[in-house]
Amino acid sequence: MQDTSQQYDAVINTCKSLFVKKMKDYGSAWRILRLPSLTDQIFIKAQRIRSLQQNDVRKVDEGEVSEFIGIINYCVMALIQLDKGVVEQPDLSPEAALELYNEKVALTKQLMKDKNHDYGEAWRDMRVSSLTDLILQKLLRVKQIEDNAGKTLVSEGIDANYQDMINYAVFALIHLKE
Q: Alpha-carbon distance 29 to 102, whole Å?
């Protein structure tokens, strides 16, 4: 588990570094995005990963790694939006955004640790393509929950789905690095 924890942190540090740089470039412009818009951004990235995995020819010189990083960062943004709500104008300093980022990642990492304990790190025997498919499935679930105005009868909420997508994307990045 310690190895997984260190690998997880290394992936998150890469994602966080990009998040911080983009905050310097763009500020918190993402704060105006409604949840369905963030969900669609994640969907686009997951669809592109699936296309890259299925197609032999690439016309854009970016691979799966940058798309999984994007999924993680957009999911963190979505978790922040769930708590803080959407605004009309960017309202977070880079420091405040980073604090929220770290908070959401810490909660998500704890979820990963709890599930890893129960599932025995089964993800290590999964293919990256399966992790991609699980992210797409979670996205379809989120879209349905959004279409149901956030209501579920027996299922976990949107936040848990975003957290699972973060963890699947981290696992995929760990696999791709190995």
A: 19
Residue 56 pLDDT > 80: no
**Which residue is it, tokens 């997951």?**
46
Chain centre distance of CA 122: 19
2 pLDDT band, cuts 50/70/90, is low
Residue 116 is encoded by which pair of tokens?
């890893």
Task: Give the span between the Cα atoms of 160 and 32, in whole angstroms.
Answer: 22
pTM of the model: 0.95
CA dihedral 119, 125, 128, 134 (to 10 degrees): -30
Stretch 82-111: mean pLDDT? 97
Q: Look up residue 141 and give its amino acid.
A: R
